[in-house]
Write a structure and sequence with these properties.
The protein is mainly β and 67 residues long. It has one domain (5-61). Helix content is 9%, strand content 30%. The chain has one helix spanning 61-66; strands spanning 5-7, 23-27, 33-37, 47-49, 56-59. The strands form 2 sheets. Strands 3-2-5 form a 3-stranded antiparallel beta sheet. A two-stranded antiparallel sheet has the order 1-4. Strand 2 and strand 3 form a beta hairpin.
Amino acid sequence: MTLPYDEQVRVLDQDGQPIAGMPYHIIDGSGKVYKGLTDGAGCCQRVHTENAQSLAILTGAPALEKW
């Protein structure tokens, strides 16, 4: 089943280039955690929710501290 709300974060450097292999830690409004490394395009995994929610997003060393 596809949930009606989804978001995907892309991590870019100061020149606008994607950062592959960047650790990330995302928490949605219900407390569900998504973590991993960005892909070759700098993208985190897509977050799907049943309703509009705020996301707490950490990258780099702060993300690793949450792992």
